[in-house]
Write a structure and sequence with these properties.
This protein is α/β, with parallel strands linked by helices. The protein has helices at residues 5-20, 26-47, 71-76, 83-96, 107-110, 115-131, 136-139, 153-175, 182-196, 206-216, 233-248, 273-282, 290-302, 355-366, 387-398, 466-474, 493-498, 505-508, 521-546, and strands at 64-65, 100-101, 224-226, 255-257, 263-265, 283-287, 309-312, 326-331, 367-378, 400-407, 421-428, 434-439, 454-455, 461-462, 488-492. InterPro entries: D12N6_MeTrfase_N, DNA_Adenine_Mtase, DNA_methylase_A-5, SAM-dependent_MTases_sf, T1MK-like_N_sf.
Length: 547
């Protein structure tokens, strides 16, 4: 969690500038900010020779480019049209159209231009150059839609200045060993999508992502996917977890406990080039929203994944599998919605067009044998008695090992959505024998629209049940965790079958009756007589005062 107030203020000012520019849709605004972050970032990456594996010894800014010139406008702005002047203009036009050094396309160069000149330069020279680069950030989408939509020179100038100030403050923090990174910055920018509520996207809270990653414990060499990746949170969480494990294997000083009491990556943590390539090729995301694809790619890049693999694809209408299966899938698919049955991939056999249910089947199909999945589902998925709901629950119980069902408190996804949800964790290939249930009542944040972190009276962070669920999950005992009056317990498959595969925690929870000490009738009457005498006495005293 970003704690630098100066950076936070710059980010708020950045968003205010976008609102003033007319970007009422936060998704369009973040896409514009994303592209400018990308332009700023590639210069830094280029300096470290990290951007292109096939050109690791050169610079993407080496060579020349042909500057854009609107010839009609150029001549029209030249003044009168006497022969001598026209000839001079034509000669000047020839000169201005000659190739120029690509160093002019660097952020550090054009940020010094006058606002109007900078807007034209970015729009007509920098953007085409960026779109020509061999980057997955750009290859993944329709480049014709990647255009500069900021038309006000003053706003563009303010936005570039603010981005510069954010990165400068980040450098100051890191010199002071605060250990923030560009990923923290971008996550803070992305948080405004939720606050605005304009995009319709339901972004998974980062502490919930960290919880799931900690429970599944991904490792180097595993192929990990998210078929509805959104801003890329689960892929980033998996990458951070793996890099953390690699970095502390020989150097314990790289271990950092973050705001949510999960381990994060130190900026000093180093991984080998081979590890970086392995990770880049192991993490794959898919999304049907081209805006989210670009945002997730930028987010992954800002978190150190230099050539991320996120594809613009509808996970339900196209076959993602082919010959590729995954060791691990983590996802938070849409909580509602339907899809035209004619567009559903024929490999999905569930007789329904409900999106949440189809994603459960898709994720099951994406797994290798013994592959593990964690998926966030709407609460009604656990108990709805409609045929398709029962069938998908039966499939997970009978054809996979349903490891755990974790009920989340209502309000986790506020302010975007108030729907109650749960986490299903299952492994493909082994039939279920027992399933572990845990009711998370408190996630360490208020459950209102503000979702503020909670603190104890002494000022220390209150993490709610998150630490407890991790500890209990990793030390669960199928023989002893059978007290159904507690916050967690095991349920036999036999019980699940008999309950029509109902996976609701409350279905199996034993509610113990409170013990009351009953009085005898004699004691009750004695107590009533005492009270009556006391009342009569007080009435007599009151009469004496008033009459």
């Amino acid at each position: 969690m970003l704690e630098n107030k100066i950076i936070k203020d710059h980010i708020n000012t950045l968003w205010n500038a976008m609102w003033r520019a007319g970007f009422g849709n936060s998704l369009l605004a973040i896409e514009q900010i994303t592209f400018l972050f990308f332009i700023k970032t590639i210069e830094d990456l280029d300096r470290r020779n990290l951007f292109f594996a096939e050109d690791s010894n050169g610079s993407i800014f080496s060579g020349t480019y042909i500057p854009y010139i609107d010839e009609k406008l150029y001549i029209a702005e030249g003044g009168t049209f006497k022969y001598e002047e026209t000839q001079a203009l034509q000669q000047q036009l020839i000169e201005d159209k000659k190739p120029r050094t690509k160093n002019e396309l660097r952020w550090s160069y054009f940020k010094q231009m006058e606002p109007e000149e900078m807007l034209k330069h970015i729009k007509f020279n920098v953007y085409p150059f960026i779109l020509s680069l061999n980057s997955n950030y750009l290859k993944s989408s329709d480049k014709s839609n990647a255009v500069l939509m900021i038309e006000n020179p003053a706003v563009l100038n303010e936005v570039t200045l603010l981005i510069d100030l954010i990165f400068e403050e980040l450098d100051v923090d890191n010199l002071n060993s605060k250990d923030f990174n560009t990923g923290d910055i971008f996550e803070s920018v992305l948080s405004q999508i939720v606050i605005s509520g304009n995009s319709g996207q339901i972004r998974t809270p980062r502490h919930i992502i960290k919880l799931i990653v900690e429970l599944l414990e991904p490792s180097l060499g595993q192929k990990i996917a998210d078929p509805a990746c959104g801003t890329g949170g689960f892929l980033i969480g998996a990458n951070s977890h793996i890099v953390h494990k690699l970095s502390i294997s020989d150097d314990k000083e790289n271990a950092i406990v973050d705001f949510d009491k999960f381990y994060s990556i130190s900026l000093s943590a180093q991984t080998t080039k081979k590890h970086q390539e392995n990770l880049s090729n192991s993490l794959k995301g898919f999304d049907l929203d081209i805006h989210m694809v670009r945002i997730s790619l930028m987010n992954l890049m800002m978190h150190g994944i230099n050539n991320p693999l996120v594809t613009y694809k509808d996970s339900l209408s196209q076959n993602l599998l082919k010959d590729e299966l995954f060791d691990m899938v983590m996802s938070n698919p849409p909580f509602s919605g339907t899809i035209d049955k004619g567009n559903i991939d024929r490999n999905l056999k569930l007789q329904t067009n409900r999106v949440p249910l189809l994603f459960l089947e898709r994720i099951y199909n994406m797994l290798k044998k013994n592959g593990t999945a964690a998926i966030i589902v709407p609460h009604n998925t656990l108990f709805n008695t409609t045929k398709a709901f029962v069938e998908i629950r039966k499939k997970i119980v009978e054809e996979a090992q349903l490891i755990a069902v974790l009920s989340l408190p209502k309000g986790v996804f506020r302010p975007t959505a108030s729907v109650q949800t749960a986490i299903l964790i299952f492994k493909k290939g082994n039939a279920t024998k027992k399933t572990w249930f845990y009711h998370i009542k408190d996630d360490g944040f208020t459950l209102d629209d503000k979702r503020l972190p909670k603190y104890f009276s002494d000022g220390s962070r209150d993490y709610g049940d998150l630490n407890d669920v991790i500890l209990r999950f990793k030390n669960r005992d199928k023989n002893n965790d059978n007290d159904r009056s507690s916050q967690c317990f095991f349920v036999d498959k036999k019980d699940l079958r008999e309950a029509n595969y109902n996976l609701d925690f409350q279905k199996y929870k034993d509610v113990l009756a409170e013990e009351f000490e009953f009085q005898s009738f004699k004691d009750i009457f004695n107590e009533l007589e005492k009270n009556e005498l006391k009342i009569q006495k007080e009435i007599s005293e009151l009469k004496g005062l008033l009459l």
